[in-house]
Amino acid sequence: MTEPVIKVAGLGKRYRIGAPGPASLRDAIAGAVRAPLRSLQAENGGGKNTIWALRDVSFDVAAGEVVGVIGRNGAGKSTLLKILSRITKPTEGSVTLKGRVGSLLEVGTGFHSELTGRENVFLNGAVLGMTRREIERKFDEIVAFAETEAFLDTPVKHYSSGMIVRLAFAVAAHLEPEIMIIDEVLAVGDFAFQKKCLGKMNEVAKHGRTVLFVSHDISAVNALCQRVILLHEGSILKSGPTEEVTRYYLDSANKLYSPINWVPVNNASGGEIQLNGVAVEQGDEETGVVSCREPFSLKLDYEVKRAIRGSRFFLILRNSKGELVFTTSDYDIPTPEAITRQTGRFISKIEVPGGLLKSGSYLGTIGVDVANDRVVFAADDVLQFDVFEPKDDTQAERHSRVGVIAPLLEWETTRAGN
Question: Which of 214, 241, 313, 371 places its Cα 20 to 30 Å from the Cα of 134?
Answer without folding.
Answer: 214
